[in-house]
Amino acid sequence: MSPPALSLDGVSCTFVARDGVASGYTAVRDVSLTVEAGEFVSVVGPTGCGKSTLLNMAAGLLAPSTGGVRVFGEPLAGINRRAGYMFQAESLMPWRTALGNVMAGLSFRGARDADARALAAEWLQRVGLAAFADRYPHQLSGGMRKRVSLAQTLVLDPDIILMDEPFSALDIQTRQLMENEVLELWGAKKKAVLFITHDLDEAIAMSDRVVILSAGPGSRVVGEFRIDLERPRDVAEVRATPSFVELHKAIWDVLREEVLAGYQQQLAKA
Amino acid sequence: MWRFIKPSRRTLRAWQLVVLVAIFAAWHVLTVPGLVPHFLFSDDNQAAFFFGEPLKIFDRIRHWFFVDRDIYVHLGVTLLETVLAFAIGTALGLGTGLWLALSPLAAAIFDPYIKAMNAMPRVILAPIFAVWFGLGVASKVALGVTLVFFIVFFNVYQGVKEVSPVILANARMLGAGRRQLLRHVYLPSATSWVFSSLHTSVGLAFVGAVVGEYLGSSQGVGYLILQAEGSFDINTVMAGILVLTAFALVLDAMVGRVEKVLMKWQPQAGESERL
């Protein structure tokens, strides 16, 4: 059997406190998680539970304090070259046009300018922004910028796609539209996806598997659910099916505890 | 009638012109001997002696540019000094700013020295530069560079420090190496800060050139002003100041032009497009 596309083996991440106090902040503790090639895995958890930390370790932007990350069986050191990362916050370079942003990764990796341009234009077309190629990010709407980000990530054809609440800033209609687009693009290529979200509906509607993280600090995996809903799915329609409702209830029972615990901790701190 | 001339976007230029004319008219009325009875000074000629007379000043400028045609060489020298000081100071500030912002250890070592040099009143250095570099163009350029450098340096430093960490992480994930990050992320991000400083620094380059000339030279507009002051020729001094002001405005407008082209990716307040 081939090794999983991405595996986190007992990773912990402790941030050293700024004032040098001995006890740092442990965001995640002893988390193990695998994503098979072609599998769509979502991680849900209460706010502040270290979901983004997990993703940053998978991307190689952050080195785990203990444990290790393996990519297709190889231990990861430095940036994960086989992964594409879609960030939660605005990540486009404001001084590059939409086309320039999509081209960026290709030219960083040494592609010829003409080739990069052609491929980038093709991807802009695919996310429906062919007419906006020469616009700068500030001239695009939030949804359009996310599409550019999507094209920017996928144009490099990564084997692993990491997504950190990519649609959390979008309104509900745009969001469902984008979710369906991502599912469609994913369905065609079947890449390994690690998807972070705080929205349980989104997680269930899109994933093969949902992993639940406990409240921080020192989050760990508290539950895992296989989502065996039929594909292809429509994120809006699938929500109405009985099996979706059942799964939602089962997962929410686990998640609720953690959300309440996380909330209590925040209150205690305040 | 008032509807057409009332201040608005359309009549902006006209109103600006009105203010200019009003200033010179007041200047003229208050200084020309005998036009209005003297009320501040003890005789009719004193106002003209202290403040100059606009008509004579304009006549001086006309002679400089069209009759004697002797200002061009001086103006050329001053502008050359300004442009050189501006270019060298900006390049040095940009390079040093990028270097120190990207290597925190070097920044920590040099921090007190940078602060000390910036706090030093640099105009004091002008005579020393004259000794080192002679009375020609080089000493004025050196003075201008010391003024421009710090403005650009601090802005670049700030610009690099404030690069969005998300954009940086994204570029790294897209495969950018160290040099590519510098070229495609740090530099463009710092440029927006540099441009906000260029308006200030082009003015300071000009100040450096003129002050340098004023303190010791044989050419340049600053030299002309110094000569005129030596003979209490207030009209020529004022004419020199007017010419300098006009050219400072031209330089500033040129920077604005370049900025508009290079910074077109920046959102402008209330920008909208007619399709």
Structure write-up:
The complex is a heterodimer of chains A (270) and B (275). With 270 residues, chain A is of the alpha/beta class. Chain A has a domain at 6-79 and 201-227 and 238-269: Rossmann fold (3-Layer(aba) Sandwich). Helix content of chain A is 39%, strand content 22%. Chain A is built from 8 helices and 10 strands. Chain A has helices at residues 51-59, 98-108, 113-126, 142-154, 172-189, 200-206, 235-238, 242-269, and strands at residues 6-15, 25-35, 40-44, 66-71, 74-75, 83-86, 160-164, 192-196, 209-213, 221-226. In chain A, strands 6-7-8-3-9-10 form a 6-stranded mixed sheet, sandwiched between helices. In chain A, α2 (98-108) crosses α3 (113-126). The longest helix of chain A is centred in the last third of the chain and has 28 residues, at 242-269. The termini of chain A are far apart. By secondary structure, chain B is an all-alpha fold. Chain B has 2 domains: 17-66, no CATH class; 70-261, MetI-like (MetI-like fold), CATH 1.10.3720.10. Chain B contains 12 helices and no strands. Chain B is globular and about 75 Å long. The two termini of chain B are 35 Å apart. The mean pLDDT of chain B is 87. The interface between A and B is medium-sized, with 29 and 22 residues.
Instruction: Tell me the structural class of chain B.
Output: mainly alpha
Percentage of helical residues of chain B? over 70%
Q: Would you tell me the overall average pLDDT of chain B?
A: 87
Number of strands of chain B: 0
CATH superfamily heading of the domain at 6-79 and 201-227 and 238-269 in chain A: P-loop containing nucleotide triphosphate hydrolases
